[in-house]
Amino acid sequence: MNSERLIKKYPNRRLYDTEVSRYITLSDVRALVMNCTSIKVVDTANDSDITRSILLQIMLEEESGGEPLFSATMLAQIIRFYGGTLQGMFARYLETSLDLFAKQQQEMTQSWAENPFEAMSRMTQKNVEIWADLQKDFLRAARFEFGGERKKKDDAV
Predict the structure, then answer these.
(1) Which residues form the PHA accumulation regulator DNA-binding N-terminal domain (predicted)?
(2) How far from each other are the two terminal CA atoms of the chain, in whole angstroms?
């Protein structure tokens, strides 16, 4: 059985949830996402996967109301990565970072009841280690050398 919830978008711009056999709104799709339900949205006109487009539409609605998540500066920086040599690496970096953040948020919620100060200290130390590793991987993939690695190469010569 497919774990993704199939939603069909019809030419009349309506969304149809095949699991519950009814039309739904963009707010309903947002609720599914917030409940960690894996979804796939398909355009019935050509059977193309338009999930990203629908999710971006939800983000646009969220950004236009209330407190935005992305600043104009941040959005401009993200746009500059499109078409560049680091686009794929940047996308993986963002995805890894968001996954890590979500996992840590879950761990923090679970361990908060134990000892809040110990949990915060442990989480901070773990963050420093993980971010250092991510930064090294990112820079290594961009072909930057680290001081220690350069020294090792010089010693080998």
Answers:
(1) 6-65
(2) 58
Chain segment 72-119, per-residue pLDDT in tens: 999 999 999 999 888 988 898 899 889 988 887 887 777 766 677 777
**Within this chain, do residues 115 and 46 fall inside the same structural domain, yes or no?**
no
The enclosing H or E element of 153 equals: helix 147-156
105 closest CA partner among 93, 117, 97, 95: 97
> What angle, rounded to 10 degrees, do the helices at 26-34 and 51-64 form?
90
Burial class, 32, CB count within 10 angstroms (exposed 0-12 / middle 13-18 / buried 19+): middle
Quote the domain boundaries for residue 132. 72-156
Average pLDDT in the chain = 85
Residue where one domain finishes, among candidates 64, 96, 111? 64
- The count of structural domains within the chain is 2
Same structural domain, 27 and 98: no
Q: Which of 16, 31, 64 is where one domain is finished? A: 64
- pLDDT-based confidence at residue 53 (cuts at 50, 70, 90): very high
